[in-house]
Amino acid sequence: MLYIIMADGKGLRWNNYNHIPKHLITIEGESLLARTVRLIKEREPEAEIIITSHNPQYEIEGARRYEPKNNVLEIDRFTAELIQDNICFLYGDTFYSDRAMDVITGAETKEILFFGNGKSIVAVKVADGELFRGHVNRVRQLYLDEKLDTCKGWQVYQSYAGLEFGDKSPTEHLVFIEDETRDFNSPKDLEV
């Protein structure tokens, strides 16, 4: 399994709070990125891990950094040139509990499986890269054609699950992870 930790966002809501990029904030003495890499390696010691980022500070032992070729829209975090079979996308600004990582790494799928908490998609496991690429491209194009207000993980889930856009109903394609993750999008998220 190839794990891709998406960490090439613009960080506009975070705004370099306390002069620290959000992916490098520390919780219990460990940065979010280092924690995610460690949790993966504890479960799959031979796993290949890529951190997608243009920021050279994001070099983390146990992973390699890759600079995406295209990063204009939020959906571009699913780095198109890295999409292949047997990959798992993880969000670099998410604190994953041990249990969440157990669920994500242990889950099996023949196509695509999304992991979320009702508010956010926190991981996507992809067995069929071409199928996933098709849904990412569909959502991206609908957004560019102004038929969607946003284009990110939820819209790809809705496209794949055959739901109306905006419908976050759970289906067999979504593993619900209630309180097993925490997102850091703004300084308020850190202060809570």
Task: Provide the fold topology.
Elements: E1 2-6, E2 26-27, E3 30-31, H1 32-43, E4 48-52, E5 64-66, E6 87-91, E7 94-96, H2 98-106, E8 112-116, E9 121-126, H3 129-144, H4 153-161, E10 174-176, E11 181-183, H5 187-191
Parallel strand pairs: 1-4, 1-6, 4-5, 8-10
Antiparallel strand pairs: 2-3, 6-9, 7-11, 8-9
Helix pairs in contact: 1-2, 3-4
Helix content: 25-40%
Strand order of the largest sheet: 5-4-1-6-9-8-10
What composes the largest sheet? Answer: 7 strands, mixed
Distance separating the two termini? 34 Å
Mean model confidence by pLDDT: 88
| Unreliable residue stretches | none
Strand/helix succession: EEEHEEEEHEEHHEEH
Supply the helix-strand structural class.
alpha/beta
Instruction: Give the count of helical stretches.
Output: 5
DSSP strand count: 11
Radius of gyration: 16 Å
What amount of the residues lies in strands?
15-25%
- 3D shape: globular
Explain this structure.
The chain has helices spanning 32-43, 98-106, 129-144, 153-161, 187-191; strands spanning 2-6, 26-27, 30-31, 48-52, 64-66, 87-91, 94-96, 112-116, 121-126, 174-176, 181-183. By secondary structure, the protein is an alpha/beta fold. The strands form 3 sheets. Strands 5-4-1-6-9-8-10 form a 7-stranded mixed β-sheet, sandwiched between helices. The protein has a two-stranded antiparallel ribbon with strand order 2-3. Strand 8 and strand 9 (121-126) form a beta hairpin. The longest helix has 16 residues, at 129-144. It is globular.
